[in-house]
Input
Amino acid sequence: MGSGIITTHGVDPLVAWQTRVHWFRDAAITAAITTLLSGSVLVSEDGVLEVSWLPMAEPDSGYLFLRRPGGLTAEIVLRAVGSSDLVTHDRRDSRPAPDRWQSLAPDGSTRWELFNCVTHRLRALRS
Amino acid sequence: MTTAEYGPVPVSRIKEEAGAIFHALESQQRVLVSRHGRVVAAIEPASPERHADSLIAFALASNETTVRELSATEIGQGSPSEAVRSAAAGRPALVTRGGKVYGVLGASRMGESLADVDRSEDMLAEFEREHPDASFDDFAAASDEVAAGGPARRVAAHEDWAGTLVDALLVRGLEYKRRHDVARAAETFERAISRFGSDPDDGVRIKVARTKVELARIYAEEEHPAGDPMRLADEAIQTLDSNSMR
Output
């Protein structure tokens, strides 16, 4: 389980974005955001819950999309940081992003586990 | 991101979501396309600033220009993975349905910096403080607003889009006329008038008026049996007169 996930103000994003997370009226998306930002493993599957990454110009930064087709999409902007840059028990370096957060499960699905990163924004897309 | 988005849609699901994708493009949303968990391409609503050359080349449809096209029919017939691969490699394609250009499939853009993101997050946080009882729709609207730079920018985008399409159809019609293919020229002008004849934007209305003048000229010169050049000319005069009074 990952740790060292904080906002730009240094607080737990699930606390900072508590109201916003619950504005998503889609229980599956709310659960996915909570799972991911708490450092637990989230499984991505096309047509069910799709997780994808779009890099930004700044290194190790990008948009992480959590999407339920026919439902809603949450966009979280993330920046990977080294463990020495944070007060964290997780000694893993999350760079380069998103490779260190992403792994293939034996059944072919993709697993996402966040650790040592700064969350910059959470917003909704109407997909 | 600099505008409202739809998706990301995995390449494997573009066919299933084709209807929603075209609806999103009509609503001026950028459609993101992903493969294996990475956003690899985007379909942007066509805009004159970014896609003028492609639109005009498509409108002219000459043998000298080869503009790649991904039609709704092709999407419905199978996976558009080859077109997406090409777009990601820098070879864009126009996304069309019924002969109309809805968007341009190209490499995904990364226009926003982290500083931009932080500014927009501050705006969302302020919205959250001021509207703690907001609904999801309010939140989604605020998210769109923050990303798109406000409603004025979106209205401007529609005007640019409609104006450029009328321009493109006008160029295509004039080119058919130059080639003495009068029937196709008339058909192209009629299409522009039919689609944009009731557009409320002044700039678009003036372009439609010019198209009506060109169509009226063809009807008059060809003594078209069903055409009514006088009515078209009167409508164009009325539009231009009313605009000059403002």
Q: What stands out?
A: Confidence is low (pLDDT under 50) at residues 150-156 of chain B. The first helix of chain B runs from residue 18 to 26. The interface with chain A takes residues 1, 4-10, 12-13, 16-17, 20, 24, 32, 34, 36-39, 108, 110, 112-114, 117-118, 120-121, 124, 128, 132, 134-136, 139-140, 143-144, 146-147 of chain B (CB under 8 Å).
